[in-house]
């Protein structure tokens, strides 16, 4: 249970000839929410009384929320009065000073309001595999906020998988190989088959895009017709900067051509070489990643994935290092919004921590 100071007042007994006095209810006198830590993969928080302001409750219980998030990796807030993108923006900025932009994004989204975006705009019949947001970069958000404005008629869950447990399921020799070499991500923009570089980097200005490349440590090459190729070597396993726990943290299984349907992959390779595919993943030294290795990774995700249905107005907070997410296919209208906060510590800074520790 947790409590919060409120503006509620109570009448105290007084003489009949006097106006009734009011006294403020103290912090310990009213429990505003229930906190269930045993009902599933994520912690479930629900209001005990009507009208609890979730943004204010988060601010007043910052340390408790951070502790629960570090322990479990995900917290669901159900039954609060969050009905608009503006209300969600207030909630998602309650623990952090600002919302992050989706620069260097890999999937199509639309900006809803400020730092609030739509969730990935893929057709409803498609599955979005488990992944940690922007793990294909050296910079990523530490916190992800999701808000279900209205759930689908069927399906459409945002499944979760504990990245610490995923790491432990992968063969030690394979995870050591990934940890040592890292992952090289290659992206080709301008072929009409994936995001344009303008949309991915949220600018039409080449010079501004190049400043972003340099800031993020991305190598690049321009080609005729405005085509662009970028590549970057990134981490495969990381240590959480607060808990120190090791977690599987990359998107090799999404960027690799083996993630494509067989007919799409064959068509792309027939029309161009592998170096011109819209996206690809190699080991950091440039050698190919074995498809059998990625099948093992996908199996580890599948074994740890848990899907819970959305409810209207629900907010989900996840630690982006400790927990991966995805999307199940769905039927009927569905609207889920996303906000990102808390950029990861700059590599090498004291807040970034040391080398990762293999999970025992």
From TrEMBL:
Residues 49-339 form the TauD/TfdA-like domain. The keyword Oxidoreductase applies. One of its GO terms (molecular function) is dioxygenase activity. Transmembrane segments: none annotated. Its cofactor is Fe(2+). Residues 338-360 are annotated as: Disordered. SUPFAM superfamilies: Clavaminate synthase-like (SSF51197). Keywords: Antibiotic biosynthesis, Dioxygenase, Iron, Oxidoreductase. Gene3D superfamilies: Clavaminate synthase-like. The keyword Oxidoreductase applies. This is TauD/TfdA family dioxygenase. It comes from Sphaerisporangium rhizosphaerae.
């Amino acid at each position: 249970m947790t409590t919060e100071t409120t503006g509620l007042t109570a009448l105290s007994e007084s003489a009949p000839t006097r106006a009734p006095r009011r006294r403020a209810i103290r912090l310990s006198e009213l429990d505003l929410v229930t906190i269930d830590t045993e009902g599933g993969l994520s912690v479930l928080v629900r209001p005990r009384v009507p009208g609890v302001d979730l943004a204010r409750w988060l601010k007043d219980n910052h340390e408790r929320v951070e502790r629960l998030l570090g322990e479990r990796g995900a917290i669901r807030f159900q039954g609060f009065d969050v009905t608009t993108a503006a209300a969600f923006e207030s909630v998602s900025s309650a623990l952090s000073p600002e919302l992050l932009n989706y620069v260097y994004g890999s999937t199509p989204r639309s900006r809803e309001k400020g730092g609030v975006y739509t969730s990935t705009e893929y057709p409803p019949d498609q599955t979005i595999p488990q992944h940690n947001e922007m793990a294909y970069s050296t910079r990523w958000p530490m916190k992800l906020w999701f808000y279900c404005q209205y759930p689908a008629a069927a399906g459409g869950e945002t499944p979760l998988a504990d990245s610490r447990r995923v790491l432990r399921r992968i063969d030690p020799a394979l995870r050591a190989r990934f940890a040592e070499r890292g992952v090289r991500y290659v992206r080709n923009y301008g072929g009409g088959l994936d995001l344009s570089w303008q949309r991915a980097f949220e600018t039409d200005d080449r010079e501004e895009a190049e400043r972003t490349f340099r800031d993020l440590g991305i190598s690049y090459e321009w080609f005729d017709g405005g085509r662009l190729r970028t590549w970057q070597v990134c981490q495969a396993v990381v240590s959480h900067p607060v808990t120190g726990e090791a977690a599987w943290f990359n998107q090799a299984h999404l960027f690799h051509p083996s993630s494509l349907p067989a007919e799409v992959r064959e068509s792309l390779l027939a029309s161009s070489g592998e170096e011109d595919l819209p996206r690809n993943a190699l080991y950091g030294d440039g050698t190919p990643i074995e498809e059998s290795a990625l099948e093992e990774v996908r199996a580890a995700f599948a074994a740890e994935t848990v899907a819970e249905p959305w409810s209207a107005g629900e907010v989900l907070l996840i630690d982006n290092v400790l927990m991966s997410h995805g999307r199940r296919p769905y039927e009927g209208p569905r609207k889920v919004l996303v906000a990102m906060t808390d950029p990861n510590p700059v590599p090498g800074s004291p807040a970034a921590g040391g080398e990762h520790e293999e999970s025992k």
